[in-house]
From TrEMBL:
Major location (coarse): membrane
Membrane topology value: Multi-pass membrane protein
Residues passing through the membrane, by range: 29-49, 61-81, 87-109, 145-165, 177-198, 210-231, 243-259, 265-282
Protein name: DMT family transporter
InterPro entries on file: AA-Vitamin_Transporters, EamA_dom, EmrE-like
Keyword Cell membrane (UniProt): no
Annotated Pfam families: EamA
Assigned keywords, A-Z: Membrane, Transmembrane, Transmembrane helix
Boundaries of every EamA domain copy: 3-131, 150-282
SUPFAM superfamilies: Multidrug resistance efflux transporter EmrE
Organism listed in the record: Halomonas llamarensis
Family label: Belongs to the EamA transporter family.
Keyword Phosphoprotein appears in the UniProt entry: no
Location within or outside the cell: Membrane
Length: 292
């Protein structure tokens, strides 16, 4: 399950690269969420999965949706739309495992060992090498975008980090399919409002955009998100968050395959270091769980 999740989740930046030329970010994501709901709601009805009966749980699930889907995806897409390179956006969002691990202790009572902290740091070093090897050393990292793009991606980092912790703390009894549908309703309302206020809502319905939208709806918004919710429900928040360290290296491999982007030896070394870091975090957590 974790391997499949990483492979699917890593296509999100590729989808953004394909789709953003044809629609503004909030409009793009609003359409994506509505299409997802059109598929997800009938599935809930056919499977006859009960909806949450507690209004408080509905509220907690909606907050998680606004954080994990609305703030995270909206921030990343808007940052890229404002000119931030996708690689730099991925690197900044890749700080999530460290932020989540640092907050998991006081908020959720999870304890990280020294080996796990070493693994988290190795992961950060690894993705820095992967993405740093692709940056042009003759240009400033912040050429082509301003503080708005930086603030958007920072909001995305905070959204996915806080959302992961919030889900683990308040939504452990969330029914998977109805809960995910509630999350998308809340995220669609949030980003639809953003599109209404800040964007023209014009879309170029080209074949490329339609195919990209279909992939993001079926593979990312349904399959990958359900895997993420299941992983959060089963595992420690910090251990699940460590999987995101593998997303930038896998995305770099996909970009090399799809767009023939060069992948230097430094990038390959970074991938290896990131994988070692994830293994340290996950294996140590598994060993601790067995020992207890």
């Amino acid at each position: 399950m974790p391997i499949v999740f990483v492979l699917l989740w890593s296509t999100g930046f590729i989808g953004a690269k394909f789709g953003l030329p044809y629609a503004e970010p909030f409009t793009f994501l609003f359409i994506r969420f509505i299409c997802t709901l059109l598929l997800l709601l009938p599935l809930v009805m056919v499977m006859r999965v009960p909806w949450p009966t507690s209004p408080a749980l509905w509220g907690h699930i909606a907050v998680t949706g606004c954080l994990v889907h609305g703030t995270y995806l909206g921030g990343v897409f808007y940052g890229i739309y404002l000119g931030m390179p996708a690689g730099l956006a991925s690197l900044l969002v890749g700080l999530q495992p460290l932020l989540t691990a640092a907050c998991a202790g006081p908020l959720l009572g999870e304890t990280l060992t020294k080996r796990q902290w070493i693994g988290l740091v190795l992961g950060l070093v690894g993705i820095s090498l992967v993405l740093g090897s692709k940056l042009d050393p003759t240009e400033s990292l912040f050429d082509g975008f301003g503080l708005g793009a930086l603030a958007s991606v920072t909001a995305a980092l905070l959204g996915i980090s806080i959302g992961t912790l919030y889900q683990k703390r308040f939504c452990t009894h969330m029914p998977l399919l109805p809960g995910t549908a509630i999350q998308y309703m809340a995220a669609a309302l949030l980003l639809g409002s953003g599109a209404l206020v800040f964007e023209t809502r014009q879309v170029s319905w080209t074949p490329t955009f339609i195919l990209t939208l279909g992939w993001l709806v079926l593979i990312l918004s349904i399959t990958a998100i359900l895997l993420l919710m299941a992983l959060i429900k089963k595992g420690e928040a910090s251990r699940v968050a460590s999987l995101f360290y593998l997303v930038p290296p896998v995305t770099a491999l996909q970009a090399w395959w799809l767009f023939n982007e060069r992948l230097p030896w430094l990038g390959l070394l970074g991938m290896a270091i990131a994988i070692i870091g994830v293994v340290l975090v996950v294996k140590t957590a598994q060993n601790n769980a067995k020992a207890s």
